[in-house]
Design goal:
The complex is a heterodimer of chains A (about 425) and B (about 180).
Chain A (H helix, E strand, L loop, with lengths): L1 H13 L4 H16 L8 H9 L6 H14 L2 H13 L6 H13 L5 H19 L3 H13 L8 H10 L3 H29 L12 H26 L5 H18 L5 H34 L2 H12 L3 H18 L2 H18 L4 H16 L6 H10 L4 H24 L2 H9 L4
Helix pairs in contact in A: 1-2, 2-13, 3-13, 4-12, 4-13, 5-6, 5-11, 6-7, 6-8, 6-10, 7-8, 7-18, 8-18, 8-19, 9-16, 9-17, 10-17, 10-19, 10-20, 11-12, 13-16, 14-16, 15-16, 15-17, 16-17, 17-19, 18-19
Chain B lengths: L1 H38 L7 H22 L15 H36 L11 H31 L3 H8 L11
Helix pairs in contact in B: 1-2, 1-4, 2-4, 3-4, 3-5, 4-5
Classes of the chains: A mainly alpha (about 425), B mainly alpha (about 180).
Chain lengths: ~425, ~180
């Protein structure tokens, strides 16, 4: 059954059928060929119970929050402010790219939105100041991927929902690896630009009072992040409630910065509905497939497969990592996550691994998929925003950051507490 | 005629999506108000339950808008290598799969609503919401999605038959003008 499903999955995806629909079709197939009971009778109930869900409504809230911030011009100010603080490092403005992306990751739940925002703001600067376009754009694509790691993260909400794992704990677990990755990106940039100064632009320092003034621009975003994350961890609010607070905060910030108009608000709303429905079709499809697979006895078959392979738990993790790296070249990220969760997570958890830890590991692997060609969404987004030069330049520029992610994968496997430390100390939330 | 049809359903669904989005915003404000009330020791109660209903209804009605904006993710790996006619065939086939599946989903959603209507079921919560009240708009959203999928499929098929491939690609291709569809 597993082989048949894997083949059918890849085949249907390759036919360019929408991913959500592929999941339903697979579910129908499992029902038809591998189940004794007609599972399709449960379809209606499943669609209702999956979408009638107070946790998942956090998704549109976080999307809306990001859309409002992105369209309000806050990004431009943030970028300028961070430029004052990090451009003294070797590599100059490239660090501002990573830092801005990190800041936006902390408020937006989406990597693509983060990359798009930073790219639009940063790209004009690259040409003006004579930066090497490869490293400069690669840093944006890579920095943008942090959007799904640093909380709040829509992908972690989906993971938590499909695997019945605590979303606040997942958010906590993503914090240290996310920040470590950001620091790693900057370290790699600095190292490259020390070795080859021509790749970065001029290092610039700014008078201290100007830096302080710039800090003021960052306060609203930092405050918003603290409120969202703080309330979740203190147990004052569920992720959904925190997201609702975030929406109000974003509207407030956008109003203060003067970026609000009816048109901008309408566009934000339309963007939110579009992305939410896209995610939900995939999520509902995945729950249906999950349900049919479980009813058809996938668990036993997986166990048999595992016993047959004779893999040690570590061996299994290495195989899984390899699968994600290979699939990540070709499959878009949310889809990659959702189509693999029903099969891979039970396997991994059965071997005694922590599902929260594995969620974070999976996110790093999926971040990598976002910036590896030929299907690396962030590469296209950055290329789309710069409107000149070749796609290949962004791909080359992203390579150093792929190495940083690989190192993070190794670290997470060697030292799981990078992810699990915060959830274990703050498990009250 | 196809162009006219596509234009109408696009405009219609833009309106629907705007409405669905406004309901989501209203729900966020409702949740917020409840948090504030809780600080002073009071509460509306049932925000979770209502959020769930809003989510189910808003997403089912937003599906068709996402379809028309080419927002439902597809993997472009083989399609991207095909020629103009090949791409059109990929698109039509994908659209056919979607239309069929969504029609089946809408059809299978009916028994859920039917049972609530027949039994006058109420939610097992303090609000005791009559389930039909929230399931009717939810079900209607899926029917709407199926209907829009059929109309789009037929319009696109007509465009392809007339050899107007770029117009067909604009209607049911892989990427919209606004590429920020993923997460």
């Amino acid at each position: 059954m597993i082989l048949a499903i894997a083949v059918a999955l890849l085949g249907l995806l390759a036919l360019s059928i929408p991913v959500g629909i592929v999941l339903f079709l697979l579910g129908f197939g499992v029902d038809q060929f591998f189940s004794f009971f007609p599972l399709i009778r449960g379809l209606g109930n499943l669609v209702w119970s999956t979408s009638n869900n107070a946790t998942l409504i956090a998704i549109p809230f976080f999307v809306l929050l990001g859309e409002i911030l992105v369209r309000s011009g806050v990004a431009t100010r943030t970028y300028a402010a961070l430029d004052r603080w990090v451009s003294w490092l070797p590599g100059g403005l490239v660090h501002a790219n990573v830092a801005t992306a990190t800041m936006f990751s902390a408020t937006s739940g989406s990597s693509v939105a983060t990359a798009a925002t930073v790219a639009t703001v940063a790209m004009p600067q690259a040409e003006k100041l004579g930066y090497d376009p490869r490293l400069f754009s690669g840093a944006i694509a890579a920095g943008g991927t942090l959007g799904i790691m640093i909380p709040p993260s829509i992908n972690l909400i989906v993971y938590g929902f499909l695997t019945q794992t605590s979303i606040p704990q997942l958010f906590l677990a993503g914090l240290i690896p996310g920040i470590a990755l950001a620091v790693g990106f900057m370290a790699i940039t600095a190292a490259i630009c020390t070795l080859r100064p021509s790749l970065g632009g001029d290092r610039r320092t700014f008078p201290f009072p100007e830096m302080l003034r710039a800090l003021l621009q960052l306060v609203p975003i930092l405050l918003l992040f603290t409120i969202i994350i703080g309330t979740i961890y203190r147990g004052w609010a569920t992720p959904t409630e925190a997201a609702a607070v975030g929406v109000a905060g974003a509207i407030l910030i956008a109003t203060l910065f003067g970026g609000v108009s009816i048109r901008m608000f309408a566009d934000s709303i339309l963007g939110t509905v579009k992305i939410t429905s896209m995610i939900m079709l995939v999520v509902i499809g995945a729950s249906f497939l999950n349900f049919t697979l479980a009813s058809a006895g996938l668990g036993n078959e997986l166990q048999a497969l595992l016993d047959g392979m004779g893999l040690s738990p570590m061996g299994l993790i290495f195989v899984v990592v390899l699968i994600y790296i290979v699939l990540g070249f070709f499959i878009e990220t949310l889809s990659l996550m959702v189509v693999t969760i029903p099969i891979i997570v039970p396997l991994v958890v059965a071997q005694g691994f922590d599902p929260i830890w594995f969620g974070i590991l999976m996110i790093v692997l999926i971040e990598m998929a976002l910036i590896t060609p030929p299907v690396g969404l962030n590469l296209y987004v950055v290329q789309g925003a710069r409107q000149s030069g070749k796609m290949g330049e962004v791909m080359v520029g992203a390579i150093p950051y792929v190495f940083a992610m690989l190192i993070m994968v190794g670290l997470l496997i060697a030292v799981p507490s990078i992810a699990l430390y915060l959830p274990s100390v703050l498990s009250g939330g | 005629m196809e162009d006219h049809l596509l234009r109408i359903i696009r405009r219609l669904n833009r309106g629907v999506a705007l409405l669905a989005g406004l309901v989501l915003v209203a729900c966020a404000m409702f949740v917020l108000a409840d948090i504030v009330l809780r600080q002073v020791g009071s509460s509306f109660g049932g925000t979770d339950e209502i959020s769930g209903y809003v989510m189910a209804i808003a997403t089912s009605w937003g599906m068709a808008f996402t379809l028309l904006e080419l927002g439902h993710v597809r993997i472009d790996i083989m399609r991207g290598r095909a020629g103009r006619i090949g791409r059109a065939l990929f698109d039509l086939f994908a659209m056919m799969a979607l239309t069929g599946t969504v029609t089946l989903i809408a059809y299978k959603c009916w028994p859920v609503l039917e049972r609530s209507l027949v039994n006058s079921s109420r939610a097992n919560t303090p609000l005791e919401t009559p389930l039909a009240l929230v399931q009717i708009p939810w079900f209607a959203g899926w029917v709407w999605f199926a209907l829009m999928a059929w109309l789009t499929f037929m319009a696109a098929a007509m465009l392809v038959l007339r050899g107007r491939f770029s117009a067909a690609e604009a209607a049911i291709g892989c990427f919209g003008e606004d590429e920020r569809t993923g997460t």
